[in-house]
Design goal:
CATH class of one domain: Mainly Alpha
Radius of gyration: 30 Å
CATH architecture of one domain: Up-down Bundle
Shape: flat
Low-confidence stretches: none
Distance between the termini: 24 Å
């Protein structure tokens, strides 16, 4: 279901400093990407496609200037992120596949090392950042509890108990998850061994089974495969080892081995599908009294028992104390907000002056930001964007004041207006919550701390990274992944190298995959395979995809929405059906006319002229000089976005009510007619 915004770009302006002047690469684009959707950005080289994509990941060139705009990912403005904050997003939540796979691969390092390295390093980074965030949050909670009038001894005891039992629960959960991952890997390996058993080739079956049996040692866990209660699993292992030593190809032992492997696979699949223990409540139970008396034959009943013990002995009282701390902290935050609001009003007057006093502005930024920081609610799970981005926005505006004063003033004034609007709303509404709402807020805080503790405890081992790499290589269509794992990039074809890069990109199970012309260097057949692969992975993993290309035909069967860019601006956007069947901008017509078409012998229509010099952007419509349908107004005024339908809009004066009626070129309308006929034939064939 496409109903949640994954990414939103608002008025993004990116320029580059050069010896010849400022290159205006991206000039105020607005785009929205929904969850599970593919957005294609199409345009000629130099239109600003890749620059926009790199801004999302924070990997702009050193001479790039983000002059204005926001890139909102799950409500957070990525343009305000520090490098450390980007490390939690880049390569994890948002990943990118580039045009040339060798720009992402090291030619003298084996593929396997390059695939596992990212998983291991990302795991360590996530652990470190989660641990730091958890400790910072607990320090803030301690201060709030003390401010709420709870005694120092009680606060110290509660925080120590909470830290200890969530750490215990997280360690138990990590060990359990590791066992589950090994089980999942074993099921995957068994499928391959069963294929090898029936293969005519001389496969190293005995070695594969011995490696498998060694891996089965890792699935033993008190809460997953218990040695005492799962004796059948141990018997299966022993029988497999015996038969493995006696194995001969095309003999009865092969059939017996296959039967035992299938039995082991079914057992592990059943275990993976069982209800899981509540490790949060179990952590307290184990910490306070051990777990020898727990009966795991009924997981739901045992979870209920551990929950009751936790609530009775600790959690209800701790939750009520946190609720009191939340109320106290919010009251303090509102009092501090009133003081910060007064200072923000002063700052608005200072930054709206005709000429800025640089020294006074620097002093005001320091004073205002200190008050804004003090007004933050330390227990809030999220910070409003106006607060989060203020310091960076004002500092950047001051830096750019001499070079681009109008941009600096606009940026600073927008930030201060947004802050004042937010503070005005907070002070007008205030906080009026009953005990029930405070209790719910306390539970949300506890849940957040629990997740951070789990992240801090999660450790990616080399074996786990290897198993995951093998599975993903199989998923992206690389045959014999165990052999390929130990090969170098030069031993792969261009298409296979691109598959490897895609595998590395999806290893962290990202929310958003950015593909920057990933098929340009490939032949047509391999292009189709890569496009099909990306589409399949998107559906399977429910990813959102941004697909960048100069070839409109490439995205015909993969895009949900298309944005056409020219000279740093989005000139038309809509659904794939809007763009292919009802194009409205002359540039989109030109792109469609230049696409190869097997159904006609007519020569392709080249777009006349060249893109404009973006050091000196054209005054009106940037495409006017190359547009045979251009009117006088196109050279004088930039067209606004005209809304054609709820999903479709285009920036062309041809859509103005007073413009002459211009039909799209006959070659384009004929092409659209053929595309519709092919689509209809395809639908009829599928029925």
């Amino acid at each position: 279901m496409l109903n949640a915004k994954e990414l939103e770009i608002r008025n993004l302006i990116v320029s580059f400093r050069t010896n010849k002047g400022l290159v205006h690469a991206v000039r105020g684009i607005n785009l929205t990407l929904e969850k599970g959707e593919t957005l294609a950005i199409v345009g000629e080289s130099g239109s600003g496609k890749s620059v926009s994509a790199k801004a999302i990941l924070g990997i702009e060139a050193p001479n790039a200037i983000i002059e204005d705009g926001e890139i909102l990912y799950h409500g957070q403005n990525l343009l305000t992120f520090s490098e450390e904050e980007f490390n939690r997003i880049r390569g994890n939540k948002i990943t990118m596949v580039f045009q040339d796979p060798m720009s992402s691969l090291d030619p003298i390092v084996k593929i396997g090392v390059q695939m596992t390295e990212a998983s291991i390093l990302n795991g360590k980074t996530n652990q470190r950042l989660a641990r730091k965030e958890l400790n910072d949050n607990l320090k803030n909670l301690t201060k709030a509890l003390l401010a709420a009038g709870i005694t120092a001894d009680k606060v110290k005891s509660e925080i120590a108990t909470f830290k200890k039992f969530i750490a215990t629960g997280s360690k138990l959960l990590t060990a359990y998850n590791n066992a589950c991952e090994y089980a999942d890997s074993i099921v995957f390996d068994i499928k391959q061994i069963l294929i090898d058993l029936h293969d005519e080739a001389n496969n190293p079956i005995q070695e594969e089974i011995k490696n498998l049996l060694k891996k089965t040692e890792q699935v033993y866990n008190p809460y997953f495969v218990n040695e005492n209660t799962c004796k059948c699993f141990g018997e299966t292992r022993e029988n497999l080892l015996t038969l493995c030593n006696e194995y001969k190809a095309k003999s009865d032992s092969a059939e017996k081995i296959a039967a035992l492997l299938e039995k082991m696979s079914h057992f592990l699949e059943d275990k993976l599908g069982e209800e899981k223990p509540n490790f949060f409540t179990l952590g307290y139970y184990v910490m306070s009294r051990g777990s020898d008396d727990l009966d795991w034959s009924n997981v739901a009943s045992t979870n209920k028992t551990t929950r009751e013990v936790l609530d009775k002995e600790f959690m209800i009282a701790f939750r009520d104390d946190i609720a009191a701390a939340i109320k106290e902290e919010r009251d303090r935050s509102i009092r501090a907000t009133a003081e910060a609001f007064k200072e923000a009003d002063k700052a608005k007057k200072l930054f709206s002056a005709e000429e800025w006093d640089i020294a006074a502005c620097k002093a005001e930024i320091k004073k205002l930001c200190a008050l804004v920081d003090n007004a933050k609610n330390r227990l809030a799970l999220s910070i409003d964007r106006a607060i989060y981005t203020l310091r960076n926005t004002l500092t950047t505006s001051l830096e750019h004041y001499k070079a681009t004063p109008s941009y600096a003033k606009k940026n600073a004034q927008n930030a201060l207006n947004e802050l004042c609007d937010l503070y005005n709303h907070i002070l007008e509404v205030g906080v009026q919550e009953d005990l029930k709402e405070l209790g719910a807020a306390a539970i949300a805080i506890i849940d957040n701390y629990k997740e951070l503790s789990n992240d801090a405890a999660y450790h990616v081992t080399k074996q786990m990274a290897y198993d995951k790499a093998i599975q993903i290589m199989e998923e992206v269509g690389i045959r014999d992944p165990r052999k390929r794992f130990n090969q170098y990039p030069f031993e792969f074809s261009g298409g296979m190298r691109q598959r490897i890069v895609i595998a590395i990109a999806i290893a962290a199970n990202p929310d958003l995959l950015i593909c920057d012309e990933p098929t340009t260097a490939l032949d047509v057949t391999i292009q189709a395979q890569i496009l099909e692969l990306i589409n399949k992975l998107k559906k399977k993993r429910n990813m959102s995809v941004i697909f960048i290309t100069h070839d409109l035909g490439v995205v015909a069967n993969v895009a949900d929405k298309i944005a056409v860019m020219y000279a740093g601006k989005v000139v038309e956007k809509g659904t794939a059906e809007d763009i292919f069947y009802s194009p409205a901008h002359p540039y989109t017509w030109a792109l469609l006319a230049s696409m190869p078409d097997l159904d006609t012998k007519d020569s392709l229509e080249a777009i006349p002229g060249t893109p404009p010099n973006m050091i000196y952007p054209p005054k009106g419509d940037a495409f006017a000089a190359r547009n045979q349908y251009a009117m006088e107004i196109d050279f004088e005024r930039e067209p606004p976005m005209f809304q054609i339908s709820e999903t479709h809009c285009a920036a062309t004066w041809l859509l103005h009510p007073n413009a002459p009626k211009i039909e799209m070129p006959e070659s384009v309308s004929a092409r659209i007619k053929r595309m519709k006929e092919r689509e209809e034939e395809k639908k009829n064939a599928e029925q």
